[in-house]
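sorry for the late reply, my laptop died twice this morning and i had to redo everyting from scratch. anyway the thing you sent over, i finally got around to it. pasting the sequence first so we're on the same page, its 175 residues, then the predicted structure underneath. double check i copied it right bc i was rushing
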Amino acid sequence: MAPNHSIPTAPCKNPVGPTAKLPCAPPTACSSSGQNSPDNFALLQRSVKRDAHQVILAVLQLPLFAQAVIGFCRVAAGIPGTQADRARYLGTMQLRFANQANFPRIAKQKGLFDSLTATLPVIDHDAANDSTNIQSFLTFALPVLTKLLAPPMSNAPEICSTICKFHLSIPDRRF
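ok and here's the structure:
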């Protein structure tokens, strides 16, 4: 005997709203801690205003922006593979800024300095020769670090050493 009601043949729609899960980074970019980490791509997109060419015009939420960059740095440090692979992952942030006006304020965000100084030695800076996205990351990271050199700091020689590894000249500073 045939049923009296029609059987739906359309596939179920994915849930929308707060119960829907946001897509996360690719499996190769997930941290090894096994914890549910925030979606760094989404954090970054919510924290900046970009133009049609994906150039960052303004950082709307400094703490959120710093959290996203720190998250990217942590994930990059855990990526198995080469230093060039880590550099390419960091390049996916597309940190092309219209200007560096916000860099002094960005540099003061808690945890950002430590994440950037820990990340620079584990990426292949020569990969920047082939990728504008990697160049953009280094163009962001290195000036942010040098903004912190203005006042005398106990770890300033360490920062200079890290920056010099990337063949950048910075003004002579007395420590």
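The radius of gyration is 21 Å.
thats about all i looked at so far, will dig more tmrw
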